[in-house]
Design brief:
14 strands; 46% helix; 10% strand; single chain; 315 residues; 5-stranded parallel beta sheet; UDP N-Acetylglucosamine Acyltransferase, domain 1; alpha/beta; 2 domains; serine acetyltransferase, domain 1
């Protein structure tokens, strides 16, 4: 076997010297652990797994839309059996993640013991009980999409392809868990939908039935927003809070900061509506790129006046 060349030896020695710097960096990083100005999860109980939560979300999708995403062909003979298997697996996996989330909260914030394992199973069952009603609500959301978008060929296309329906589905799942006071997991779910669709719906928002988001990219719906039934919104719509100083933030954490949208309202693309005291009355229409920080009575239309277009010959 041929001896390594002098160049190979030089490269090998250089690599060795560079790798010897790694332990020094590791030691410096280790020294930053458990410091108040750095964040880590060292010497603590396991926290919920983001990957496991996303797997739970897929399981829930299989149950809410049976036959669409599970990969198993369903018919009248096996649908009950398959759903039973899915529900049993969901109970095990969801209760485990809820237990981890509760335990993490207890230890991180030095709370009174909440019997996390038993509580995790109780909350998982409470969530399972909500699924039949959630399916009915999502059915109304799907029909609203069909009625509101002439490009929608059929319900299958909406379920498979519409990012707005996916975001609303995840919202309704996350909102249910949020209402059950499950920590952390609802936010993991909503941010996963945000990453996938560009639609950011906080699980604390309250949204009525027959809700349709058309296109959807850039939609933001804040934590304390309230949206009635039969509301339609387009891409880029923001239901946000007014800007706050650092001193004001803590005092407003549990107060209403985002607007209320009443029934049968349409919000066109890039409309921005801000403030917890702002109420958009029922059956109103808000045009594209409108900016509102004040309330409107029912049956109001708001549009921007046409801007002047300057058209010149290209030189």
């Amino acid at each position: 076997m041929a001896e390594p060349s002098e160049q190979c030896k030089t490269n090998r020695d250089a690599t060795r010297r560079l790798r010897e710097e790694i332990p020094v960096v590791v030691e410096a990083l280790t020294a930053t652990c458990n410091r108040q100005d750095c964040f880590d999860h060292v010497n603590a109980e396991p926290i919920p797994s983001r990957e496991a939560v996303l797997a739970v979300l897929r399981q829930i999708g299989n149950i809410l839309y049976p036959g669409y995403f599970g990969g198993t062909r369903l018919d009248a003979v096996n649908v009950g059996y398959v759903l039973g298997q899915e529900m049993s697996a969901l109970f095990d996996d969801l209760s485990e993640q809820i237990t981890l989330a509760i335990r993490h909260d207890c230890l991180r914030h030095d709370l009174v013991c909440a019997n996390c394992a038993e509580r995790g199973e109780q909350l998982a069952v409470a969530f399972l009980r909500s699924l039949p009603a959630m399916r009915e609500t999502l059915g109304k959301d799907i029909r609203a999409a069909q009625e509101g978008d002439p490009a929608a060929r059929d319900y299958d296309e909406i379920i498979f392809c519409y990012p707005g329906l996916y975001a609303v589905t995840v919202y309704r799942v996350a909102h249910c868990l949020h209402e059950l006071s499950v920590p952390l997991i609802p936010r993991i779910m909503s941010e996963a939908a945000h990453s996938r669709t560009g639609i950011d719906i906080h699980p604390g928002a309250r949204i009525g039935e027959s809700f349709f988001i058309d296109h959807g990219t850039g939609v933001v719906i804040g934590e304390t927003a309230e949206i009635g039934s039969h509301v339609r919104i387009y891409q880029g719509v923001t239901l946000g809070a007014l800007s706050l100083s650092p001193e004001e933030v803590n005092g407003l954490r549990n107060q209403k900061r985002h607007p209320t949208i009443e029934d049968n309202v349409i919000l066109y693309a890039n409309a921005t509506i801000l403030g917890g005291e702002t109420v958009i009355g029922a059956r109103s229409v808000i045009g594209g790129s409108v900016w509102l920080t004040r309330s409107l009575p029912p049956d109001t239309q708001v549009f921007l006046k046409n801007q002047e277009l300057l058209i010149a010959e290209k030189r």
